[in-house]
Amino acid sequence: MNQAHFTDIPSVYSRILDKSKEIGFTMPSDLFIGSLLKTLISSRQKANVLELGTGIGLSLAWMVDGLDKDSVLTSIDNDPELTKIANGFFGEDPRLSILCEDGENWINNYSGPQFDLIFADAWPGKYSQIDEILSLVKVGGLYIVDDMNFQENWPIGHAEKAENLIKYLEKREDFNLTKMNWSTGVILMTKIK
Ligand SMILES: C[S@@+](CC[C@H](N)C(=O)[O-])C[C@H]1O[C@@H](n2cnc3c(N)ncnc32)[C@H](O)[C@@H]1O
Prior knowledge:
Strands 3-2-1-4-5-7-6 form a 7-stranded mixed sheet, with helices on both faces. Helices cover 36% and strands 22% of the residues. By secondary structure, the protein is α/β, with parallel strands linked by helices. The longest helix is centred in the C-terminal third of the chain and has 14 residues. It has one domain: Rossmann fold (3-Layer(aba) Sandwich). α2 runs parallel beside α3. The protein is globular. The chain has 7 helices and 7 strands, in the order ααβαβαβαβαβαββ. A hairpin with a 5-residue loop joins β6 and β7. The protein binds S-adenosylmethionine. One of its GO terms (molecular function) is O-methyltransferase activity. Keywords: Methyltransferase, S-adenosyl-L-methionine, Transferase. InterPro entries: SAM-dependent_MTases_sf (IPR029063), SAM_O-MeTrfase (IPR002935). One of its GO terms (biological process) is methylation. This is O-methyltransferase.
């Protein structure tokens, strides 16, 4: 099996990748996590999905491809240039809300329904506000983070933060958890109570 052979890369993906190179975006999500997110999201109907860290929209492209017609997806980033670009690629899709907002503020002020799936790819909802974000996952819903394996470009002290996050997530008795040494290091959790 060649896990790097992808047969269903989103049609908009190459244009986003070109834009990413053009503006020098250095934090793209990889194809593996994108593909996983699409597969997981498409297991749900009428799903309510959240992405923290829109970036330039690479993971979002996969996530959108996994949505059924009645599902909705909110994606948050605090960088106006990035949300403008992402809105340019996806803005016409009525299922999507791409918001330029600080993730921490957004989490603290959110009072809507819980989510079927949360992909936490920014600092808030991962290294801060972890209890708050986990409380926004439905029972039976999924919480996913990547970038959990050591990377050369991590600043000093980040490895310890990642280790502390893993230990904390492992202790949560209201979630089942799987750690995967795959992609950039993925943790996939399901809320069980
Ligand atoms: C790893 S990148 C996301 C990559 C994205 N998933 C993609 O595939 O293009 C992390 C993103 O988090 C955003 N970010 C950082 N701090 C944030 C905050 N406090 N609130 C919201 N977004 C934040 C950054 O602007 C960056 O785009």
